[in-house]
Amino acid sequence: MHRTLTSLANIWNLGIKEFHSLLGDKTMLFLILFMFTVSVYSDAKAKPETLNRASIAIVDEDHSQLSTRIVQAIRPPQFIEPEMVELADMDKGMDAGRHTFVLDIPPNFERDVLAGRQPALQLNVDATRLSQSQTGAGYIQSIVGNEINAFTSRVRADTELPIELVPRMMFNPNLKSSWFAGVTSVINNITMLGILLTGAALIREREHGTIEHLLVMPVTPLEIMLSKIWSMAVVVLVVSSLSLKFVVAEIIGVSIVGSPLLFALATALYLFAACSLGIFMATVARSMPQFALMAILVLLPLQILSGAITPRESMPEVIQLLMSFAPTTHFVALAQAVLFRGETLTSTWPTFLLLLAIGFAFFLLALKRLRSTIGSMQN
User: Which of 30, 32, 69, 345 has its CA 20 to 30 A from that of 267?
Assistant: First the structure.
């Protein structure tokens, strides 16, 4: 009993030492603050997947009822109000960068449509604006097609079909890409800092020579490892929870329907695995530059192949099998289930147990490596 209390005291005191060390590192503090504020917001807002206020000009050479309907159908929020230009000025706007799209409606367009001649419309696209040009052409084609069909059939809402399909968007009614991008950014930053902070803490001990001081103290490798894990995990858990509350929910406007406490529990279990992985990598690397290069090789697959960016079902089966042993895969599934779908512990407990098992395996592997490293230093 006395030994257990002494061990817990050592773990607590060594963890407090890590807090003091982190508070003295202004660069790391700025990095933590930046990653969970500015970085999360910019990831959510900087790369919209949907078309928004694209500039378009229209050359109406037909001046018919059908061409007027097409012009009136192209409107915000996907496009700004179309600018009507003459045929001779069509290229000038694109050359000057004022228009992303220029639609040319040829003469006798309505007459040819009614006669069934299938006339061609010319759509010029500025492909240097890649994100808008890829989706905008599809939007314009859909708008023109709908207007032609409605005009030729002379009906719009009165057409009766054998069935009625009523779409209902669950969990993200307005299909805002920023909702998923913001949460994905928080998950990626938890992964990155969980690995980097613990790994950097251990390497800093070795580079500053304080690891030798620990070796002559009555502390074990298990106590050293647990102290670094709990202290760095607390830091990441606190800042990620604050980021979820104030940046993701308040500033970005994501509707969090699940329990933040359940997400915090999932984050704590995940950090147990991520911090253990960071310690393992720190025992392999001999310096901070080596650790940074190793972190790049580890972080990229964890973030890209975990299912946060693209669905796992679209990946090769071999990749799916390999990534099922990665804690990030299960943490992403838990985060999406809890935050977006509002699932509870009753339905997610198998994933929690699996995440705990993977974290425990990472912990034992890192502990074995740390004992081996410390043993070689003592010899």
Answer: 30
pLDDT digits (tens, 9 = 90+) for 332-372: 999 989 988 888 999 899 999 999 999 999 999 999 998 88
| CA distance to 43, 279, 310, 347, 364, per residue, from 135 (Å) | 20, 44, 18, 38, 49
Of 371, 33, 30, nearest to 224 (Cα)?
A: 371
Q: Which of 333, 340, 345 is nearest to 256 (CA)?
A: 340
Any bridge partners for residue 58, and if so which? 84, 103
pLDDT one-digit tens code per residue, 98-138:
888 999 999 998 898 888 888 889 998 887 766 677 778 88
Question: Are 285 and 294 in contact, with CB atoms under 8 Å apart?
Answer: yes
pLDDT of residue 156: 44
Cβ(273)–Cβ(364) under 8 Å? no
Total-model pTM: 0.76
Q: Does domain 56-153 have CATH number 3.40.1710.10?
A: yes
Kindly report whether the peptide bond that precedes residue 301 is cis, defined as omega within 30 degrees of 0. Answer: no
Q: How far apart are CA 255 and CA 105, in angstroms?
A: 43
* Residue 234 to residue 190: CA distance in whole angstroms: 11
Q: Which residues contact 315 (CB under 8 A, 6 or more apart)?
A: 305, 323
